[in-house]
Hints:
Radius of gyration: 14 Å
Strand order of the largest sheet: 2-3-4-7-6-5
Amino acid sequence: MPAHADGSQAQALRQPDLRRVFDRASLSLEVTLERDHGFFTGFTENLSEGGLFVATHMPSKVGDRVILAMSLPGAATAVRTECEVRWLRLFSETSDAPPGMGLRFVRLSEDDKREITAFVARRATRLPDE
């Protein structure tokens, strides 16, 4: 389903094959994203072993790759990994949900995977499917 140039489409654009495979933890954390034409920041809404949602008004396109950097509370080192954009939630004046993108981890080191798994286990709350 194509998005309108003005971003008015309210329905999320998804590739549903990997939705809700992992438990998610609610998390509001600033992240830095790097793509071909620069850096930008966003905020997480939730995190799982498979990926995360980043609220941003500057989403990439579905299928694009970005480099994500974030520091989890209590972690010794920052996570830095390649992610793939799997779905978008576009801005809508009729919704309180922030625009952004669902990211899937592509190249997650074993140390980062352990750190994320432990963090999610400590804070996991099952969120209802949308």
